[in-house]
Protein 1
Amino acid sequence: MEPGIIEVKGLRKEYGDFVAVDNLSFSVEKGQIFGIVGPNGAGKTTTLKMLSSLIRPTAGSIHMKGLDIATNAVEIKSFLGFLPEESPLYEGMEVDDYLMYFAELYCVPKDQAKKRIRELLFDLALNPDGKKIGDLSKGMKRKVAIARSLINDPDVLIYDEPASGLDPMTSRYITDYVRSLKQSGKTIIFTAHNLYQVESLCDRILILKGGRLVTLGTAEEIRKEYGKIQYRLEFKVDDITDYNISEVIKEVDESYVVITNDIDVVNQTTKWVASKGGDIVEMRTIVPSLEEIFLELMGVELFVD
Ligand SMILES: Nc1ncnc2c1ncn2[C@@H]1O[C@H](COP(=O)(O)OP(=O)(O)OP(=O)(O)O)[C@@H](O)[C@H]1O
């Protein structure tokens, strides 16, 4: 198999005695959207900061396009765009001037920078109307930070919670925009707490907990490996007293509900209901969402009605 555009091996970060990231290995293929999820403090931001050369790993290696980040950080930065979780912007500046300033830092020729800024503002539906950055809404500020991350037209984007804390419309806009960046050939690693967003957007997902990899794969692979398919059978009978097929039975409205992962329980219950002259109200399969699997992997007990 060809090496990925990003290859991470045995990555570790210690802060004093505390191990924030431990023996993390993964690879990202060109043109993929790769999502990193995990509870607060899992080590997501620390990982992204190491990928962006903002902090140095304690151990392990990171290669991008075959270049070792330990010795080629400057070259890697030229094709990398980083969006921090909280991006301090120069509040007193106007958006165009701010983006032009970063374009100059990245040595983008002026004419090219002007064209690029125009395109970015258009694509992100950003119309600052001469306002200073400090006077923009939170969603607009996030869009400015995204525009800044793209000013040098990088191939690899590292986005820390790009759409968090925004209203649903802006959040959706940014999610769709990230999808369009993939379509234009960019490789994107991002972190998020919204697992529906991650599931709909990512080619591959890495789940982190306590700095360690819990699992890595497509949403489908993770679902297959960890998701227990359950059956929910709802029925009506006059007398439930001699039912003893499943230990877990609930009364919901006028019906009884059995939830089980054992198809035999479903078959036996169906027969028992028929023998009692009762009716099956509904029988359905419950496929777990990524969010449910995530919560279960994190040790949170789930209840299904
Ligand atoms: N500079 C630092 N010094 C000491 N500990 C740190 C430092 N930065 C992060 N940590 C610790 O490392 C752990 C991982 O932090 P990190 O910010 O990477 O988590 P995260 O998964 O991004 O969390 P969140 O979802 O809350 O953003 C946390 O326990 C955090 O307190």
Protein 2
Amino acid sequence: MSLDLPQGMQINAPLHPRFEQILSREALELVAKLHRAFEPRRQELLKARVARQARIDAGELPGFLPETKAIREGDWKVAPLPKALECRRVEITGPVERKMIINAFNSGADSYMTDFEDSNSPNWYNQIQGQVNLFDAIRRRIDFTAENGKEYKLNDKIATLQVRPRGWHLDEKHVLVDGARVSGGIFDFALFFFHNAREQIARGAGPFFYLPKMESHLEARLWNDLFVMAQDALGIPQGTIKATVLVETILATFEMEEILFELREHSAGLNAGRWDYIFSCIKKFKKNKDFCLANRGAITMEVPFMRSYALALVQACHKRGAPAMGGMSALIPIKNDPVANEKALAGIRHDKTRDANDGYDGGWVAHPGLVPIAMEEFVKVLGDKPNQWGKRVEGSYGPKDWLNFQPEQPITEAGVRNNINVGIHYLGSWFAGNGCVPIHNLMEDAATAEISRSQIWQWVVSPKGKLDDGRKVTAEMVRALIPEELAKVKAVVSAQGEATATYDQAAKIFEEMSLSDNFPEFLTLPLYEAMD
Ligand SMILES: CC(=O)SCCNC(=O)CCNC(=O)[C@H](O)C(C)(C)COP(=O)(O)OP(=O)(O)OC[C@H]1O[C@@H](n2cnc3c(N)ncnc32)[C@H](O)[C@@H]1OP(=O)(O)O
Ligand SMILES: O=CC(=O)O
Ligand SMILES: [Mg+2]
């Protein structure tokens, strides 16, 4: 099997069955075209992130941009939404794995965000097989037979598909154009769009996307310009693509209206991506000696800096006629423990009730078993209306609220151990090809794992990183706890009948990442270099 590659392109990766169908000459031509047009700007924007981080490290605080005041004060709305995206009370998300894709489409959710990002381990096989799976699903040709003989196929009524490509920071290292790696996001988007956009339009829903981890409206402009070129390339009317932006970095909060404005012909609103958001707060202000967050479990949506961001997002969206989508609780159904399960489901209900009452038009769930509860809570508030754009959200929120990083306590030994344990467990699974795992009855993905490793880093470095019993969190303490937690992780993984081969390497990398002087910007950057 060999590929017919466009001029200047190299692919250094194995071809599994049907990969050549996804990696067709025409699809790769679109990848190359978008790469050549936009890669220099992606690189500039990534450099701008680094420069901004250096200024923040030196004490600069973010604020609203003076040069975009007219956008914030102007009278404009995003373009109307297509029918298929009007009602989004519950959105299920999950990695691009074949069985899960079928289950998610059939889950009863209004929409399904299929994920090449936080919940996906981006090895070559997962990325391209994910495209094969979506190709089949969109044409309603997907099926799957499990090892136990259970057969899976799509129901007549399925959720509306949205696709989350990788963020701007990630490369696709197996694909080079003119000697340079292509962007992971451009690669995922272009392959999906080339193969499926026309088919989706013919079927009345799509192409729709979710855009992750942006830090500025200029990054949103890059996506918008890319959409314009891609639509032209396929002869698809401008404005057909719709995309929801995850507001999951602290800096994006200062530019929410600008992000909607940049994408206004293509916008499907904003989503409060809480887990990357917490990670971003830690990352951006990690050198600020006044700032040190408490145990991960204490940073809920109810703490003031999270609550004020969540409410401001609803206000920004509704002012601009755009959906405000709630994020995801990490709670999942718990098997074999009815009491704990009831508690988890009550937690989900609480999360969705709060979001619905706050004015959100819908929200995310991690698991099909959570769809009915989330649906019930949004229907209670929405009734038969598709959205709550008419709802007035009281209050005025800004930098003082968003940068008030409390609580700072408790930090406990159990909290330190939990971060180490979760971090190692997640990294080991990621290397084994699974980007989303249940750990201690919670959903863990790349965003939640980032919180775990960055908290350890912060607690070691910050003078405020002290346990409730007075001990300072130190590198020595963390180094001593890592082998203990690694042993616990291996015991759990073995008990599940899974191999533990990847976990020693995971522990080593976790130690490097959480204790090195230089804070790696994303966990996934060095990890990706170490995977196939
Ligand atoms: C921070 C963020 O970015 S949030 C967005 C990214 N995160 C996600 O998308 C979460 C995705 N969720 C998942 O991967 C899983 O639900 C996990 C890992 C959290 C839990 O997995 P498990 O404990 O294995 O789930 P469990 O065994 O209860 O699954 C029961 C069934 O539901 C299915 N299922 C579970 N979650 C999902 C999902 N999100 N989509 C589709 N099917 C799912 C399973 O495949 C399984 O199907 P089967 O009975 O036909 O075999
Ligand atoms: O992508 C979502 C998040 O919470 O992070
Ligand atoms: Mg995220």
